[in-house]
UniProtKB/TrEMBL annotation:
Function: Catalyzes the NAD-dependent oxidation of glucose 6-phosphate to 6-phosphogluconolactone.
Pfam families according to UniProt: Epimerase (PF01370)
Active site residues per record: Y146 (proton acceptor)
Top-level taxon of origin: Archaea
Chain residue ranges for the region called Disordered: 237-257
Protein name (Swiss-Prot/TrEMBL): NAD-dependent glucose-6-phosphate dehydrogenase
NAD-dependent epimerase/dehydratase domain location: 5-176
Gene3D superfamilies named in the record: NAD(P)-binding Rossmann-like Domain (3.40.50.720)
Amino acid sequence: MDDPVLLTGAGGAVGAAILEGLEDAYEWKLMFHSPPAEEPDHEYLVGDVSSEGDVAAAMDGVSAVIHLAGDPRPEAPWDSVLENNIDGTQKMYEAAVDEGVEKFVFASSNHAVGSFETDERTPEMYRPDDQYRLDGTELPRPGNLYGVSKATGEVLGRYYHDQYGLSVCNIRIGNLTRGHPPIDYERGQAMWLSYRDCAHIHDCALQADYEYEIVYGISDNDRKYYSIERAKEALGYDPQDNSAHFDGEERVAEPEP
Ligand SMILES: NC(=O)C1=CN([C@@H]2O[C@H](COP(=O)(O)OP(=O)(O)OC[C@H]3O[C@@H](n4cnc5c(N)ncnc54)[C@H](O)[C@@H]3O)[C@@H](O)[C@H]2O)C=CC1
Ligand SMILES: O=C1O[C@H](COP(=O)(O)O)[C@@H](O)[C@H](O)[C@H]1O
């Protein structure tokens, strides 16, 4: 990819994972919400995704986008997800069409499908021997308004793909935690996404050829209720980490060679 890749939400956790893993792999154009504490090594701007002008400036000259910016709180109120997540994402897609962007990678979430975790299925579905899987073909089933905003982002992508031809990849990110899986949290261990697997799946989403995809972004955990088969097939995702290889913060087993 010769043109710059726009990374919104560059100052956040997912942005850090992507930049740490792929710093030199792309010519990045970073969008921050507020001025970064340290001067970045890449082109950057400060702006708000709910501002048409800021978004147009961010999109200028890029051919691919990883759109992370938004309110990530599962308990976020409607006003916030409406402005930051839904309106912001629509403005990003509109500007992407105007700029002729080819590829749009959207940070969706496990919370787009949170209501599949019913009282009848939990906690068994979080355990290694349970075979229940969501694979991305199911309809969204959010468990909160944040999840509604992520499901809406996926549908916006469907529209902009079908009507304007952008390649769109929605990554339903699980639980990104640095260094080790969440501790004493079965659900979080089942949807753990390590930092290196996070960088890798976004690299795959920038490199692969596809039309419109919904994939789960988790490591290859023994515990899982999200299938990673579609991410493997459509993107060539080859995760290295597994929450079962950890005892608390300690890695106790290495990945298979
Ligand atoms: N961290 C995780 O485990 C997961 C994250 N995600 C999604 O990934 C994305 C990134 O999440 P994190 O890095 O964890 O969150 P974060 O809060 O660390 O980063 C989000 C960034 O977006 C920026 N931002 C928020 N509203 C903005 C606006 N209106 N205009 C411009 N920038 C804005 C914030 O300043 C922040 O730097 C979010 O969309 C979140 O919903 C989805 C599933 C799991
Ligand atoms: O979408 C998100 O999901 C992760 C994991 O969800 P949780 O319910 O286990 O906390 C969350 O940490 C992150 O903030 C959110 O954006």
